[in-house]
Amino acid sequence: MTAILLALASAGTFSAADFLGGLASRRADATPVALVSQVVGFALLAVGLIVLPGTPSISAFAWGGIAGLGGAGGLIAYFRALSIGAMGLSAPMASLVGAVLPVSVGLLLGERPGLLAVVGVGLGLAATVLVSLPSSQTPRAEGQHTALLTAALAGVLFGLFFVGLDQAPDDSGLWPLVGARMTGVALIGGLLGFRRATFPRGAALRTAILSGALDMIANILFLLATREGLLVLTTAITSLYPVGVVILAWVVLSERLARSQVSGVVMALMATVLIALP
Questions:
Q1: Whole-model pTM?
Q2: Which positions ≥6 away from 71 have C-beta within 8 Å?
C-alpha cells in the first residue's frame, strides 16, 4: 500500500509539473524551459540528499545517467508536444507509450502481480487510451498530428527513465537522481549550444521554476515507490498523470472534455482501486 500511495502522489505531482511546463513552453522555447526545470530540480535534490543520503556507487550513477538521458530528452519532446497541441491529447499519448516499456521490463524480470492488479494495469492502460482519443468536442490545434508523434517519442524516453531508476541499487538513496540530473543538464545544455532559443522570462520563468521543483518531487516519490513495490504496478499508477493534466487543461485553459476522456478518468480511478487491493 505504501508503494501505491507514493506512486499516486508521484502521478499527481507529475500532473501539476507537466501542466506548468507546458504553459511555460507556450511562451518560450521548450528546450530552455526544460533546462530551467532540470537546474531547479538539481538545487532541490541537494536538500533531499540531506534527508535521504544513501550510498553513492558507480552502479547508482550509471543507471541514473541512463535514466537522465531518457528523462531530459523526453522532457524536451514532451514540453514541445504540450506547446504545439492540445494538452489533453498529448499528455495521455506520452503516458501510454511511456508505460509500455517499464511494464514489459517488469514482467520480463519476473514480476508477477496478482490477478486484480493485472486487471487494474490493463484498465489503466485502457483509461489512458480513452483520455487520449480526440473527438468533435476537442478543438483540433494546428500541428496536432506532429504533437502526438512528438508525445509518443517523449513516452519512449520516459519509459527509459522509469526503467533506469528502478534498476539503481536500493541502498543508493537519491544518488541515482543526481546522476540523472547531471546527464540531463549536460544533454540539454549541449543542445542549446548549437541553436538559438528564447529563454523564459517573467511569468514564464516563474512557471518553469515551479514546474522544475514539482518535477523533482515527483521523481523522488517515484523512486521511493519502486523500492517499496513492483515496477509494473508503480509505473501503471504513476502513468495515470495525464488524468491530472487533462483536468487542469479543462479548468484552466477551458479545453473541453470529450465523453471518452470522462470515461477514461473514471476508468483510471477504478484501475487505482484494483491495483491497491491486496
A1: 0.82
A2: 157, 158, 161, 180, 184, 219
